[in-house]
């Protein structure tokens, strides 16, 4: 097993995205920013996310073999001859992350770290992914726990703004992932995974994405409506929200794989802009 294969098991790109989400939760409520705490929080979240990713590789190794995108993964391709040993790695990463959260922050951060891993590893991967098209809706809650963990690293008693941002994260996931699912529909169909485009087709999925994004953009304005963030945030959220809705509308008019890919990339730009808007509103000092 090469180092590259281990890195692939960890899905570090996703891990750092989860860590960035936690850092945004931290920045949203922190009055004074500690680079050291941000660094430790990042490591903590990457460990938790990597634990869930390793388990996902283990559990999905059978259907990964059936999909072109995932057939080359270490467990699916047979590069690792004893896949059950990987479960020890998954458990060790989660224990390390929770121990770091407990020793550096508090039990609330550790609890959110555990819940995020549990929702991705068990709720999404084991319970829902192969059974229902709502898999990514409910399983998407895994990412929401990251922003709650980041805020709890500052003060567990501050709850309103973190929960409003968590709601935005929760609603962002379907618009993001369903766009990707349109481009990968044939892969999921071969593996028997009931992703939404496989169940209702691309055109209807595009309409579901549009409806979900309307809810997403509405939720992104709640922090301003409840007085948790100011006008700078609101201006950014409105501008990028309208832009993302425009992309969604284009997808509804043309539910092709090319447009779905554009929408998928646009969803990541949307979320990054929301993150920047939170930071600027809280810490730019304008």
Tell me the domain tally.
Answer: 2
Which of globular, elongated, flat, extended, rod-shaped describes the shape? flat
Unreliable segments (pLDDT under 50, ≥5 consecutive)? none
- CATH topology term of the largest domain: Tetracycline Repressor, domain 2
CATH-assigned homologous superfamily of the largest domain: UbiA prenyltransferase
Main CATH class of the largest domain: Mainly Alpha
List the secondary-structure elements in sequence, H or E. HHHHHHHHHHHHHHH
**CATH level-two architecture of the largest domain:** Orthogonal Bundle
The end-to-end distance, rounded to whole angstroms, is 52 Å
Evaluate the radius of gyration.
Answer: 19 Å
pLDDT averaged residue by residue? 94
The main sheet comes to: none
The number of E-state strands comes to 0
Query: What is the structural class?
Result: mainly alpha
The helix tally amounts to: 15
Task: Kindly estimate the percentage of residues that lie in beta strands according to DSSP.
Answer: under 5%
Fraction of helical residues: over 70%
Quick structural overview:
With 286 residues, the chain is an all-alpha fold.
Description of the molecule:
It is a single chain. With 286 residues, the chain is mainly alpha-helical. The chain folds into two domains: 1-157, UbiA prenyltransferase (Tetracycline Repressor, domain 2, Orthogonal Bundle); 159-286, Four Helix Bundle (Hemerythrin (Met), subunit A) (Up-down Bundle), CATH 1.20.120. Helix content is 78%, strand content 0%. It contains 15 helices and no strands. Helix 2 (12-29) runs antiparallel to helix 3, helix 3 (35-59) runs antiparallel to helix 5 (86-104) and helix 14 runs antiparallel to helix 15 (257-283). It is flat, with a radius of gyration of 19 Å. It starts with a helix and ends with a helix. The mean pLDDT is 94.
